[in-house]
Here is the input.
Amino acid sequence: MLDRKTPLVEMIDISVSFGGLKAVEDASVDLYPGEVVALLGHNGAGKSTLIKVLSGAYKRDRGTIRIDGQEAAIANPRDAKAYGIETIYQQLAVADNVDAAANLFLGRELTTAIGTLDDAAMEAKAREVMGRLNPNFRRFKEPVKALSGGQRQSVAIARAILFNARILIMDEPTAALGPQETAQVGDLIRQLKSEGIGIFLISHDIHDVFDLADRVCVMKNGQVVGTAATSDVTKDEVLGMIILGKVPPGATAGPGALKA
Here is the structure.
């Protein structure tokens, strides 16, 4: 059961311009604990720009961000991390030549009392976190470049939650993966949900969205067309929102909705 009392994240009337171009205009979206919200729309619709405001990569011209009901000051990625917000990009930022434990602690390595790397402690913690996420993962001693796409996603996600991420932004997490690896990533996302982590999912795959997301938020021309629970709309209706800006009866219209 989702906690519907206080959202993890509220983005309210966010606007972003680049020069004279309005990339996002008065966009609002929220996210609750243990929920996946999919952000959908054509390339250039504004979804990536909106979410980069949350991650601290872009600054907003106006609008409010609240975390746990309190207004949040997010001006850069470091601020976002302080609020428990982590981003996992399509091009995974993993170090190919080192193993899973080294990736999890990259830049935040554990050391012994005499200042040397504490490899044993880092591996033990890596096994604990990976065991939570992916109990079948066994390839702790191999460089990440030897892992499958799904296993590499496991490492990237484990690194995010190791340092207490509560809000994950996942950009096309199943792009270029085969069916088995896509299913593995789906299992990872369901495990994160069960732990109360909220996930913004950016995806072009409508089938993935209906398998994984609780709600969809469709954007077009920098504005929110509408939001809906995936249980209240069909795939064809969501495609109608993406292509035409047409909001079906099961969705809540936003400022970008096609006017009758």
About this structure: The chain is about 30% helix and 25% strand.
